[in-house]
Design a protein that fits this description.
The protein has about 230 residues and is α+β, with helices and mostly antiparallel strands. Helices cover about 20% and strands about 25% of the residues. It has 2 domains: about 5-105, no CATH class; about 120-220, Sandwich (Jelly Rolls), CATH 2.60.120. InterPro entries: Man6P_Isoase-1 (IPR001250), Mannose-6-P_Isomerase (IPR016305), Pmannose_isomerase-type1_CS (IPR018050), PMI_typeI_C (IPR046456), PMI_typeI_hel (IPR046458), RmlC-like_jellyroll (IPR014710), RmlC_Cupin_sf (IPR011051).
Length: about 230
């Protein structure tokens, strides 16, 4: 990553030219990924990551947890990303933004191994929960058909509702009043603690909504001593 940019670009160009001469059945998944990256970032040293990092194809409703100081790159498609509070995003490739190679090399964990795909735990019909191995966040997924409803139990802390697709309503019950707000792709609501929510789908297409808040179960287990960490 510290090589001269012109030399990196020349090596990549020669590699792509060699791949172009190969028959499709001769190309590996890594080769195909290299071509995809090169088409978007020609000459970028990050293209070589195709041969160094795990490539993962996520299906709808799949999730993956990426720990702190682990490199990753989104290649294509759409996803919902939730992350811990941080002002430290370090880049070293596949970007037109500033690259800080020295800091990246110092901070990486250098752990290897296959990634683990999370399928989510079914809480009840139309509701899934994704709980990563950290206290910072958890994610609930609501998927409803027209006329269906689901209740989200009160969270102990603040949370956020994000609508991905479909149309519907969310009824928020508070101590002294209740309010019903519209849901459609792009709507985001900040939700106060200790309030239950009733979500209803009104569209022909599925209503998909996510709620994010802290990982309450892991926090409670940690406080009760159920989790033992040895350093």
């Amino acid at each position: 990553m510290r090589q001269d940019e012109a030399q990196v670009a020349d090596c990549l160009k020669k590699l792509v030219q060699r791949l172009e001469k190969m028959e499709p059945e001769q190309k590996t998944e890594q080769d195909k990924t290299l071509n995809l990256l090169y088409a978007q970032y020609p000459g970028d040293v990050g293209c070589f990551a195709a041969y160094l990092m795990n490539k993962l194809d996520l299906e709808p409703n799949d999730a993956i947890f990426i720990g702190a100081n682990e490199p990753h790159a989104y290649l294509q498609g759409e996803c919902v990303e939730i992350m811990a509070n941080s002002d430290n995003v370090v880049r070293a490739g596949l970007t037109p933004k500033f690259k800080d190679v020295d800091v990246l090399v110092e901070m990486l964990t250098y752990k290897d191994g296959p990634p683990e795909v999370m399928k989510g735990d079914v809480v009840k019909e139309n509701l899934k929960m994704y709980r990563p191995p950290c206290e910072d966040f958890q994610l609930e997924q609501v998927e409803l058909r027209k006329g269906e409803s689901v209740k989200l139990d009160p969270a102990n802390g603040p949370s956020m509702l994000v609508t991905i697709s479909g149309d519907g309503t969310v009824a928020m019950s508070q101590k002294k009043s209740s309010a019903s707000m519209p849901l459609y792709a792009g709507t985001i609501y900040y939700c106060q603690p200790k309030n239950a929510f009733h979500i209803t789908c009104t569209s022909e297409s599925p209503l998909i909504v996510y709620r994010s808040n802290v990982n309450e179960k892991l926090i409670m287990e940690s406080r009760s001593g159920s989790i033992c960490t040895i350093h």
